[in-house]
Each structure stands twice: as structure tokens, then as C-alpha cells.
Amino acid sequence: MSVKYQSIKGMKDVLPSESPKWIFFERIIIEWMKKYGYEQIRTPIIENTNLFIRSIGEATDIVEKEMYSFVDSLNKDKLTLRPEGTVACLRACLENNLLYNSTQRLWYMGPMFRHEKPQKGRYRQFTQVGIEALGLEGPDIDAEMITMTKDLWNQLGFKNIELQVNTLGTVAERVKYRNILIKYLEDNIDVLDEDGRRRLYSNPLRVLDSKNKSMQDICNNAPKLIEYLGKDSLCHYYTWLNFLEKLGISYVENTRLVRGLDYYNNSVFEWVSYANESPLTFCAGGRYNGLMEELGGESKAGIGFAMGVERVLDMLDTKVIPENNNLIYIVHFGNNTDEYGLLIAQKLRNIGFNVKQDFEHSSIKSQLKRADKYNARFSIIIGENEVYLNKVKVKEMKSRNEVLIDLNNLIDFFIKNN
């Protein structure tokens, strides 16, 4: 009995029927990044495990239970499949001295890996598009990032979405608030669920992010971090919000928005979709001003965001994707017709046409059915008589009209009908 191999749980194939949506999105992203002056960076999918522990935080869900980590059998190094892109991007900048007397605006797209429970919109291998603006510390770049995302959502035709914002202040301000929050949660420990009790001392801010219905009152009534922030943090936050208002971008302040990575500070935000029954975060980010220093570099400001591509594509209405019906399909039957077809196909490809030749040697009827399946606009039909006359039949697939064309006039015909 043969073994039927399947994809790993939580890791999804992108089939040919789905690829056009991905290709469309990738092209949109490339042009969008150019418009805002971001340059692409590509990093390995495997990094040193300690890089993520040090930056993301030991008490985060990602480090505690979601990372795909292993020991290299050759040199015993502890390695991890990247769970997110920011840290790898910063590591590459520091290693290659990209921030010496310079700022950087970078973007990336690629697979990330987290050992989570697979469900709709959540996979163990997933794709992220991320951007990082490094060395820029003002609220103006924070505002441009929001403008940038809003621009993309408009282009993709997204509706029923909401921007949620918050500020996490500085590390020192959060330490002060942390002690106050722990005391509040201790006083209400009988209401905390198992996850809340686990996080009480290791990561109390994440307790506020609980989705457990029985904990909503305690989370909503918790002390607010913003009440413990200093003048500089408040100034940065309200200047950022003022920029958004002047840009005509609506937002909702969510004091429980804390993000799942320890390196965030000051501005944080999420884009949430309400298109389905349950709210879904599809893009999120924020500031990480101390992260480069934590990784061994000079102290520099940073802000970035990432979007889950699978989630974005699930939201994408296929009507916004242009139909690609410029395919020319070559149908042939009889002696020497395959060679004749190969020569014609290559001539057309050389001047920019998309051509697919049938090599299944079946009936004309079957070949034309395949032309319809591939959404071909035209079929070129070649029989022995066409080869002898140095002509071809061209069939317009929608109208089913046919015309016999001299081979010397074929290119002109397709240029006129392109």
C-alpha cells in the first residue's frame, strides 16, 4: 500500500487557481513600496534562537510556545525558523552597517513560522509583508505609516475596517505602571482565567488583551497606562493623533491594545476587519526605539508594521483583480504541426505575447476545451493543410469566429487585436 503524503498541518499549498490573486497582490505591493520610497531587503528564514528570545521577550507566547526551534546537527547551534520579520531585518542592518550615519526605510515579504493552532486566517507557515523605518523618531513618520496602509486598503477596496491606536510609553513608564497593574490584578485574581494567572507576573500587560468574555469587565476597569505616562510620551502620542486627524484618517483609541511582542513602545496600532462575524486583525505595528541597542547596536529609533498576506487575500474581492485573458492557445493535429506550432509560439512570445501550446495530441475538440479552461482569448489552429499553405486558423474563443490568416500577417493581426 503506497503512502499518501500530505502537507504539514497548518502549512498550505497555493494552487494554480489561487496564484493569480497572489501575483496581483505582489505586484501591487512592489509599486506601493516604490511610491513611498522603501527598498526591499531579503533575509534568511533561519536565525539564531537567542536573537528572538532577546528581542521578542522570554515571557511572550511566541517564545514560550510558538517558535519552531531546533539544534543544528553539524555544529550544535540553536536555530529558529523566523516567527516574524522585524528582528531579522534589524540584525541584517547591524551586521552590514546599513545604519552608519544613515536612516533606512526597508520592506520585505516572505514566509514566517509559528506553532499555533491552525484555523481560518491563522497558519503555522504564513506570509508577511513588513516595513521598517529606522533612525526616524518623530510622530510624523508614525503618521505616514498609517497613511501608507490606508492608501493600500483603498486601492484594494477594503471596507468595514477600523484603525485602533494606543501608546505604550517608554520602558521606564511601563515598569512603574506594571507594578500598579499587578496589584490590581492580584486584587481580582479570582476572576482571572488560567492564561491570566500565568501571565500575572511574567507579562501582566498581555492580560488586558484577553478575549475571554468573563474577563472583559476586569480588563476594561483596569488602571490605564496613559495615566502614568510622562510629558514626552504624551506629546508624541497626541501629535501623532493630530497628524492623523489632519490627514482625514479615522481612528479608535484602544487602551487595551498592547501587542504581543515585548519590544514595542510609544505608538502602537492595529487594523481590524469587521467583514465577518469575529473581528480580525490583519495588519499591526508600532515603535521599538530600544530594540537596536538591545541587539548590540547604537541606540536608534525604529517603527514598523506587518500584514498577514493570507488574511489580506481572504478579504480581497476578486472583482478588483484584472482578468488575464490575453492568452493565445495553439491547437494542432497531423504531421509536422507540432514543429510548426513551436516556431509560431516562439515568434509571438518574442514580441511579448503569452502563448501556451497543447502537447497532449488529442482531438481538436478536446484541445479547444482546454483553451476555454485556460481562459484563452484566441486559439491558433494548425492542421496539415495550414502547414502546406503557410497559414493558420485563428479562433476568437468568446465569439467562436474563425479567420484564416497568412503566417506573414499573423503578428500584425495580434498586435491590432491586442
UniProtKB/TrEMBL annotation:
UniProt superkingdom: Bacteria
Major subcellular site: cytoplasm
SUPFAM superfamilies: Class II aaRS ABD-related, Class II aaRS and biotin synthetases
Reactions catalysed, as given in the entry: tRNA(His) + L-histidine + ATP = L-histidyl-tRNA(His) + AMP + diphosphate + H(+)
PANTHER family given in the database record: HISTIDINE--TRNA LIGASE, MITOCHONDRIAL-RELATED, HISTIDYL-TRNA SYNTHETASE
Signal peptide span: none
One Gene Ontology term, aspect cellular component: cytoplasm
UniProt record similarity statement: Belongs to the class-II aminoacyl-tRNA synthetase family.
Annotated InterPro entries: aa-tRNA-synth_II (IPR006195), aa-tRNA-synth_II/BPL/LPL (IPR045864), Anticodon-bd (IPR004154), Anticodon-bd_dom_sf (IPR036621), His-tRNA-ligase (IPR015807), HisRS-like_core (IPR041715), HisRS/HisZ (IPR004516), HisRS_anticodon (IPR033656)
Binding-site list for L-histidine: 84-86, 114, 128, 132, 259, 263-264
Protein name: Histidine--tRNA ligase
BP terms from Gene Ontology: histidyl-tRNA aminoacylation
UniProt entry tagged with the keyword ATP-binding: yes
NCBIfam families registered for this protein in UniProt: hisS
PROSITE patterns, per database record: AA_TRNA_LIGASE_II (PS50862)
EC number: 6.1.1.21
Cited Gene3D superfamilies: Anticodon-binding domain, Bira Bifunctional Protein, Domain 2
